[in-house]
Amino acid sequence: MGWSGYGTFVVLAVVLVLVPGPDVAVVLRNTLGGGRVRGSWSAVGITVSNVLQGAAAATGLAALVVRVEPLFQAIRWAGVAYLTFLALQAFRSAVRGRYPDLDDGGPAAGRAALTGLRQGFLSNVTNPKVLAFYLAVLPQFLAPGTPVPVLLAYALTHAAVGLVWLLLLVAGLSRARRVLARRPVRRALDAVTGCALLAFGARLAVSRGT
């Protein structure tokens, strides 16, 4: 479809990443809980997962995963379990209401980065709907027999757009963190985030197939 088709895909990618989902909830919680470093690395973890799943779709591996029902369901329930785990963590923080002082640097920065990377990656890679998205959307813009490098370029574009949006979100949350991190506000945000994560997990649990 040429540059016109690619431009249309970019517009669609922008629209899709702006729709709130589990990725936004995870980045929100990590940024408020661990600061800009942890939030940024959670965005990187999500992007790494998107790249891997996009590559799997481009090379045909994703189609195999989706067709093998036990494997697809195993990934789906792992995603449900992990989102539920994160939701329970958020609820526990809301109930306890004990939060460390704001600090984006020092020795804790390395741990915060690792935690953010792990949570971002796991929350995204255990969502089989991401694979299904690539398999459903990419063929709409590309003709049969399109070379793998072109497929990869489209998939990487979606991942890059998502990363830019999440990093902008982290930057905005970081600026407002002094206000948002006040104990009553933080407890309310943890409760709302927990509800959102639990809802995303429930939606994934009741979804049927792809």
TrEMBL record:
InterPro entries: LeuE-type. It is a multi-pass membrane protein. Keywords: Cell membrane, Membrane, Transmembrane, Transmembrane helix. The keyword Transmembrane applies. One of its GO terms (cellular component) is plasma membrane. The chain crosses the membrane at residues 41-65, 77-95, 151-176. It is found in: Cell membrane. One of its GO terms (molecular function) is amino acid transmembrane transporter activity. Signal peptide: none annotated. This is Threonine/homoserine/homoserine lactone efflux protein.
